[in-house]
Amino acid sequence: VANIRGGGEYGPRWHQAALKQNRHKAYEDFAAVARDLAARGIADAQHLGIQGGSNGGLLMGNMLTQYPELFGAIVVQVPLLDMQRYHKLLAGASWMAEYGDPDKPEEWAYLQNYSPYHRFDPAKNYPPVLFTTSTRDDRVHPGHARKMMAKMLAAGKTALYYENIEGGHGGAADNKQRAYMGALAYTFLWNELTKGL
Question: Topology of domain 12-193, per CATH?
């Protein structure tokens, strides 16, 4: 477990260390863990896969768009990816204390720096990515994953997409669906990370 700033592992101060304009610290911390794994010879980028959902999906989106060279494959689940419109969709408005208000120019100035949808560069090389979401997600709108997938496909990038028509924010309605979605993620990671072995 990376225990990056912005999480609750070490109490309120640890969480508050990566709010709003300091959110980038969470992404820098995660990238530092990936670099450390490579430096210690534990896993090189070609064989390092990552997975995260919801706020962790935003983390994965930032690893994809800011640090693509550090990973061999990424699974992005029920993610926030468009930080310019997140507050207009479903529960997004309730997270403005965490991320900021994109309608305020001074807050959009830092939000755009960690909005994966806006950071995407068609000229960059990205690792293979799997997006998963749920049509019935009542927390993070599936439009985040849909838009990002469309943008990646339009740029000719390697990306897969799965949208469960049931379930909620967890992506699955029952244990059978949960197992299926887990199998999708792990099969994707296995297939991508074992190439050339």
Answer: Rossmann fold (3.40.50)
